[in-house]
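User: Some background: our group keeps a shared notebook of sequences we're curious about, and every so often someone picks one and asks for a predicted structure to add to the entry. Today it's my turn. The entry only has the sequence so far, pasted here. Could you supply the structure so I can complete it?
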Amino acid sequence: MKLVNLPRFVGALWAPENLMIVKQAVTTSAFRLARFVFGVFQTIYWQLNGTAQQVRESHRPEHYDRSAQVLDVLWLHEFCPVNFYKTENFICTHDRFESPQYVFDNDNINLMFITDSHAVFCEPTSKGRGRPRFASFCNFFFG
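Assistant: Of course. Here's the predicted structure to add to the notebook entry:
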């Protein structure tokens, strides 16, 4: 097997229009790896400090007053603007549990997206131009 086309292939990778795609693939892979490692440590920490139990209990109807979990966003990454609104694009830490009334009482909180099991609301850190930076999420758990 000859590698006659290898120099042309490598040259094509470094073309400006393809370099952006390679950069996005590398940063997305690094983000996914960081999110996985962070998730492993977070799961262990949540089991040890009782947060995991509180999350499970917040799904139950009798705990409606604590069913909104507020999460602080540490890092977000978008590979494609179309798929930006997915929970896999965020690395978050637990802040507290709130009543769902928290969303209705604050005018700066907006619905971000809905999944099969959650309604995710965002509270931006600042107003103005550019892409919003999200300080926290409120997850509503559907029964």
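Suggested note for the entry: Residues 6-141 form one domain. The CA atoms of residues 43 and 49 lie 10 Å apart.
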